[in-house]
Amino acid sequence: MENYRQFGGLGVNWLVFGSSGHLHKAEVPQLYRFLMRSDLHFLPNRHIKSIVQPRHVKAAYQPHYFRYKKGRFCINENGSPIVGYESEVSVDKIQINHYYCRSKEEYREKINRGRSDIEESRSMDAFYAHDKDANVVEDRTILKVLSGWQGKEN
Prior knowledge:
By secondary structure, the protein is an alpha/beta fold. It has one domain. It is built from four helices and nine strands; from the N terminus they run E-H-E-E-E-E-E-E-E-H-H-E-H. Strands 1, 3, 6, 7 and 8 form a five-stranded mixed sheet that branches. The chain is globular, with a radius of gyration of 17 Å. The model has no long low-confidence stretch (mean pLDDT 91).
């Protein structure tokens, strides 16, 4: 993170992961169950989550978009400025795994919980629309990260 200290924030793209064909919730942690994701060019992957330095933030409009104080701004992992809540997808240095769908059973639970950000409710149609495009690339990156952490614990 040292390379990003002079900026107001670092915008990190997410990659939308699908159900990996799972229909039911399981006791296995999601990082091991859901290894299928969308292609980089899947439109929702343009969304970012921001890692911000609060002292450089003027206002938070939503989890994806902040307004920065004069002279400060958000950049992507390659140093390109980001305006708004989207950026060209770049996940060579850092990525967020967005487990949007999970299993069908878990998505139904998500529908029942409701949304925290808007009044609009989710539907199973949204599950099918996302899941269709979110199971096209196998991505085991997180398993390599976990393996590295587990090796350091010993």
